[in-house]
Write a structure and sequence with these properties.
four-stranded mixed beta sheet, 2,3-Dihydroxybiphenyl 1,2-Dioxygenase, domain 1, 8 strands, 2 helices, metal-binding, alpha/beta, 2 domains, globular
Length: about 150
């Protein structure tokens, strides 16, 4: 088998299917601080490009019905990383103000003894999301023991 020789790959942006573009734009803008870079609301094609500091990070495509399914192959969850546990808690406070449903109560460690951890919640379409940090969560509970907290919520 031949293996492609490529430069080191990094995730570019993530595209999500949504049921209500306007609602999703407002959620990602207000709750997570993304800025709209481009919004198209033609009758048959409705989508938005969201980013931070002018860099595309997330695309939203209004082409779905129903809610996110954890029972079918595809996206498991989408994680956003910040530098500090204080930043995770600041995002958590904003999400609580917006009445966002959480999978766990407060910041949790990724697993027993891990310094990394974060918060786990869903967007308006039920898409599972995480905001995490690589350190600072070592004193937080790990709700699933040695299994990753981000794996079975």
């Amino acid at each position: 088998m031949t293996t492609a020789i490529t430069p080191r790959l990094a995730t570019g942006h993530v595209g999500l299917n949504v049921t209500d573009l306007e609602r999703s734009i407002e959620f990602y803008r207000q709750a997570l601080g993304f800025e709209p870079l481009r919004i198209v609301t033609e009758e048959q094609h409705q989508y938005a490009f969201l980013g931070s500091e002018g860099v595309l990070r997330l695309t939203l495509w209004q082409q779905s019905d129903g809610n996110f399914s954890a029972n079918t192959p595809g996206l498991h969850h989408l994680s956003f990383q910040v530098d500090t546990i204080e930043q995770v808690r600041a995002v958590e406070a904003v999400l609580k103000e917006h009445g966002v449903p959480f999978a766990y109560d407060g910041v949790v460690a990724h697993e027993d003894g891990a310094a990394s951890g974060g918060i786990f919640f869903t967007d308006p379409d039920g898409i599972r999301l995480e905001v995490c940090t690589p350190s600072g969560a070592q004193d937080s509970p790990a709700p699933t023991g040695s299994a990753p907290s981000c794996g079975f919520f």
